[in-house]
Write a structure and sequence with these properties.
By secondary structure, this protein is α/β, with parallel strands linked by helices. Helix content is 37%, strand content 21%.
């Protein structure tokens, strides 16, 4: 089990568990490991971006110092969305990229996420090498003289990323009224101007970052104010990003929340109808609503499911040459455009479908019937071995037969706590409540 790296880089409370000293170490190690096979007689280059957190500049300074201390040339991008770092890593032919952000977490937290030269997150194997070196004596190279790394301030590259995003669609948005919630985060540097340049009338909230208000009652995890704004301003659509702008949650003109499953459905069907949905498949996770698979089946679109986490969605997409995938939480990956979830890109693609179809978002999602879903966390004394308990397995099997293919049950252990998570979906709330309560009771009896 990894000590420092989680599912999305290294995260922690800034200046506590995620210290400037650790950021410096990560810079040195990342610069060394990621450029290990490169020609050291030529420039080795990294790009570094951050979100709007107060601790961002502190960690950025330490991380950059670490990179430069192993001879890396650094382009400091400033405030930019995570997908902007992934894109510019490729476009500027850098050896690697780093994003300093804790995504949708509170402002006290921060994180450091590395990308390889193709803009992909690091492999588990490379992260394990990081782990070993972090706790080892530092014997990495320390070049001197003219071989010490240099720094370029590259905030102007944000415009290059914005122009690229615009190039991914063929229509403008003239006549559209769009409400944006930038979560007081990284999308404030791009999204409002971008949608205006495409001709839309734009109303924006969550676009006054002060270092401490990122994700506070705003953005994709708190879309309530955006829902009110859409109705109040009679907007055609609302788009809510998270702190580092790699997620999107939408709001239709009636104020209804449209989640990642529904966004994937709308975009997937559009690509399918154009004949450009690669291998006729959309990738999602096991947490996608049962109605998602049902509606894709009705459209003759394949659905492959992975374990929870956008990195696993991406792995499946790369392995089998799929180009559209994502999570219910709003991480949507358009792999023919970028190598990571991209909230602004997803928003552009979604609005573009509305323009092409000349329909409202509520009309487009109407065929998607969400199944009632209930998730209960069962506290247990020991989560090990639950999946070999005959009584628990029999209870699950019995209820699956009762559903008769018109719903599903997912039971899994928490990765971090002594909890067994029991989730069911079915045609009615009464059905799923009964199933979840029955299975949870059996788990309690058998384990505790």
């Amino acid at each position: 089990m990894k000590k420092y790296f989680g599912t999305d880089g290294v995260r922690g409370v800034a200046n506590s568990s995620l210290t400037p000293e650790l950021a410096y170490k990560l810079g040195r190690i990342g610069g060394y490991l990621i450029t290990r096979g490169a020609n050291h007689s030529k420039k080795r280059k990294f790009v570094v971006g951050r979100d709007t957190r107060l601790s961002g500049e502190m960690l950025e300074s330490s991380l950059i110092a670490g990179l430069m201390s192993v001879g890396i040339e650094v382009i400091k991008l400033g405030v930019i969305p995570t997908p902007g770092v992934a894109y510019l890593t490729r476009e500027l032919k850098a050896h690697g990229g780093v994003m300093i952000s804790a995504s949708h977490n509170p402002f006290e937290d921060n994180g450091i996420k590395f990308f390889d030269h193709k803009g992909y997150k690091l492999s588990d194997e490379l992260e394990e090498e990081f782990e070993v070196l972090i706790d080892s004596e530092d014997t990495l190279p320390r070049p001197t003289g003219e071989h010490v790394g240099r720094l370029e301030v590259g905030t102007h590259y944000t415009k290059q990323f914005s122009e690229y995003l615009k190039s991914t669609i063929k229509n403008d948005f003239t006549g559209m009224k769009i409400a944006l919630d930038c979560a007081n985060g990284a999308s404030t540097s791009i999204a409002p101007l971008l949608f205006k340049e495409l001709g839309a009338e734009v109303i924006t909230i969550g676009n006054n970052p002060n270092g401490t208000n990122i994700n506070v009652n705003c953005g994709s995890t708190h879309p309530e104010n955006l829902q009110k704004l859409v109705i109040q301003e009679k907007a055609d659509i609302g788009l809510a990003f998270d702190g580092d702008a790699d997620r999107l949650i939408a709001v239709d003109k009636n104020g209804n929340i449209i989640d990642g499953d529904q966004i994937l459905y709308v975009c997937g069907v559009s690509l399918h109808q154009k004949g450009i949905l690669k291998n006729n498949t959309v990738v999602s996770t096991v947490m996608s609503n049962f109605g998602f698979k049902k509606i894709l089946d009705s459209q003759d679109i394949n659905n492959i499911q992975t374990q929870v986490g956008d990195r696993y969605v991406l792995e499946e997409m790369m392995k089998n040459d799929y180009t559209l995938g994502g999570e219910q939480s709003g991480h949507i990956i358009f792999l023919n455009h970028n190598t990571t979830g991209d909230g602004i890109l997803s928003g552009l693609q979604l609005v573009n479908v509305l323009v092409e179809e000349q329909k409202t978002l509520s009309e487009l999602v109407l065929p998607f019937k969400k199944y009632p879903q209930l998730l209960v966390n069962v506290k247990v004394s020991n989560k090990q071995g639950w999946d070999q308990n005959a009584n628990i397995l029999n209870s699950i099997s019995k209820h699956e037969k009762d559903l008769n293919g018109n719903g599903r049950i997912l039971v899994r252990a928490s990765g971090t706590e002594n909890l067994i998570r029991v989730m069911a979906e079915g045609e009615t709330e009464e059905i799923v409540t009964s199933i979840v309560e029955n299975i949870a009771n059996v788990i309690q009896q058998q384990i505790n």
